[in-house]
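About this split. The held-out portion is used to measure sequence recovery: a designer receives only the structure tokens and must propose an amino acid at every position. Recovery is the fraction of positions where the proposal matches the reference. Here is one held-out target exactly as it appears in the evaluation file.
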């Protein structure tokens, strides 16, 4: 049998080793924890609204910034450069009056257009003329229009008939959901939805299906509902 003190002593060696390993790990992983990143605020921009490309974890001792449209440092697609000391913006070939660069490097795009969708690259120039580059994505969405609901029939017989409801929209890149009596439609095994949710088939209908249906079209920046459509179910 070993004495408790011998156990405690032997146990202390791996404990110290772990501490040492942890301190080495911290030192080693430090550079990757503070990566330069671009965040779109809001994450999905609405057409006509302002959007900020916010820059995080800038290195210290910076001389200035250059913003480019696209995924690379391409002088033809330079939006503008900013000199920090002078607080001056120098427009580039891809400049628009709607763009502003803040002293902290963030790029504001006022009244975003669908064409603003794409990648943006920031070159942060350090005092020693070395640079750091990061690319971020911006998505601009058009607010959706009001959809229309079309039905195969407004009056159906219980257990005998089927009804097909179709959500009509001119918008693309949207999602569709169905509402029944102002609530998300509870799905039953008599209901079938098309892959894109635009068509709802109820087969056969039952008396509890009677009531007001709406479809709702949405994307990350907006949503619109159709006018309610009233389904009548007769029985007996
Ligand atoms: C940079 O400045 C702008 C304007 O003052 C501000 O909205 C934004 O949050 C700032 N960005 C960061 C990362 O602090
Ligand atoms: C932006 O960059 C991503 C990732 O590299 C790429 O998949 C995408 O096609 C680019 N978007 C545009 C609009 O160029």
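Reference sequence for scoring:
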């Amino acid at each position: 049998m070993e004495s408790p003190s011998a156990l405690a002593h032997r146990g202390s060696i791996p404990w110290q080793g772990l501490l040492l390993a942890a301190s080495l790990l911290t030192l080693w992983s430090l550079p990757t924890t503070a990566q330069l990143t671009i965040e779109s605020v809001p994450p999905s921009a609405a057409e006509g609204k302002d959007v900020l490309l916010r820059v995080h974890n800038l290195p210290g001792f910076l001389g200035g910034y250059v913003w480019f449209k696209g995924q690379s440092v391409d002088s033809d697609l330079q939006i503008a450069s900013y000199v920090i000391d002078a607080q001056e913006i120098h427009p580039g070939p891809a400049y628009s009056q709607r763009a502003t660069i803040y002293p902290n490097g963030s790029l504001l795009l006022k009244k975003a257009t669908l064409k603003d969708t794409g990648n943006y690259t920031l070159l942060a120039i350090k005092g020693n003329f070395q640079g750091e580059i990061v690319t971020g994505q911006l998505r601009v969405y058009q607010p959706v229009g009001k959809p229309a609901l079309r039905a195969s029939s407004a009056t159906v017989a219980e257990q005998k008939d089927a009804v097909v409801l179709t959500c009509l929209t001119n918008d693309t890149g949207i999602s569709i959901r169905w509402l029944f009596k102002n609530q998300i439609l509870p799905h039953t095994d008599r209901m079938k939805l098309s892959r894109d949710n635009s068509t709802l088939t109820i087969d056969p209908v039952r008396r509890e299906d009677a009531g007001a249906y709406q479809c709702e079209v949405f994307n990350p920046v907006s949503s619109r509902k159709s006018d309610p459509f009233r389904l009548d179910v007769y029985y007996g």
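Annotator remark: The radius of gyration is 30 Å.
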